[in-house]
Design brief:
The chain is mostly beta strands and 125 residues long. The chain contains no helices and 11 strands. The strands form 2 sheets. Strands 2, 4, 5, 6, 9, 10 and 11 form a 7-stranded mixed β-sheet that branches. Strands 1-3-8-7 form a 4-stranded antiparallel β-sheet, with no helix packed on it. Strand 4 and strand 5 form a beta hairpin. It starts with a strand and ends with a strand.
């Protein structure tokens, strides 16, 4: 069964940067599109980015477009989210998730069946 693990969160000052990583245990991530989601305190979870299996598609939510970069290294079985110039409103728990194998990047959160435990990102001066 696909099991995802996020890492790379932490406490940073505004303007700082973090690199989040999503890995899978015993499963080849190259067969899965991977989405990144976040849930800020008191708010609903939102999808912020997604990358297709071959990196032919990269999607970004408007609030992070032009700032964050999603990428994957299938040889390393890793999907990353580079987050420079962080803002306080980026504070959230960040999750990676996967839809069923060979799907693209679904628009609906419900299509993502496999989730990591989340990693906390706190942006504060």
């Amino acid at each position: 069964q696909l099991q995802l693990v996020e890492s790379g969160g932490g406490l940073v000052q505004p303007g700082g940067s973090l690199l989040l990583s999503c890995t899978a245990s015993g499963i080849t991530l190259g067969s899965y599109s991977i989405g990144w989601f976040r849930q800020a305190p008191g708010k609903a979870r939102e999808g912020i980015s997604c990358i297709s299996t071959s990196d032919s598609i990269r999607k970004y939510e408007d609030s992070v477009k032009g700032r964050f970069t999603i990428s994957r290294d299938n040889a390393k079985n890793t999907v990353s989210l580079w987050m420079p110039n962080l803002k306080p409103e980026d504070t959230a728990v960040y999750y990676c998730a996967a839809p069923p194998k060979n799907n693209g990047c679904p628009g609906a959160e419900e299509m993502f069946d496999y989730w990591g435990q989340g990693t906390q990102v706190t942006v504060s001066s």
